[in-house]
Amino acid sequence: MTLILTLFKEQLKNFGLICRLAIYDIKGKYQMHYLGVLWQFLSPLLQVVIYWVAFGVGIRHGAPVNGTPYLMWLLCGLIPWFFIAPTVTQGSNSVFTKVTLVSKMKFPVSILPTITIISNGISFIAMFCVLIIMMFLYGVPITLYFLQIPYFFLCLGAILFSLTLLFSTISTMIRDVQVLIQSCMRLLLYISPVLWNISNNPHLAAILKINPFFYVLDGIRNSVLSTGLFYHEIAYSLYFWCLTVLILLIGSVLHFKFRDKFVDYL
Known about the structure:
The chain is an all-alpha fold. It is built from 11 helices and no strands. The protein is 74% helix and 0% strand.
């Protein structure tokens, strides 16, 4: 636990630097594009249209999900996923791509995955505001269930930090892991509650709930659509947090063990 506390201290001590580098990362990503940061909205929008046409119109023929229009139901899962998928893949590669920056600016390597999380998180917050606008357009009321959103944002940040810390350490030493992570994230899209409604198949849901992102995605959707409270599934909440802490513990041990040797693997 001492290592975890050290990690958190490094994040808090360098939070200002993390935010500055995250904003610089966003600007640098789109500086050669005519539309600039608008691509942060245009790219997800194009993907939403594709998934809605393929699954909402093509497969479901426009049928709602438990009384909710499929597009609204889809957005509740896709918008968080647009934050999760790139954050895991980019965060896992953050140490390998930016470790030389540490020697120039003298800050702890552990903040590199956090920079990716904050950078993509800014886009996520903007997209979530779009989701709120869609709620008004579809007549979805904001109820007390919506108060769960900060909790699930905390869950999302915790699992992303834990995974990116672990994966960024391993993938720096074993480059094949980065390719494996990218493939796994593409697969997870189809076995997470993003495109499919599996509430009517409890046996399948029980298996897919092993995936920690299931807890967060399902929780955000339930909060937006007012269909469930997190404390109704205490056992599942405990599973999520135990798994998150375990991943964070393993990641912190490996990170501090090899952080001084990262440059040797470049």
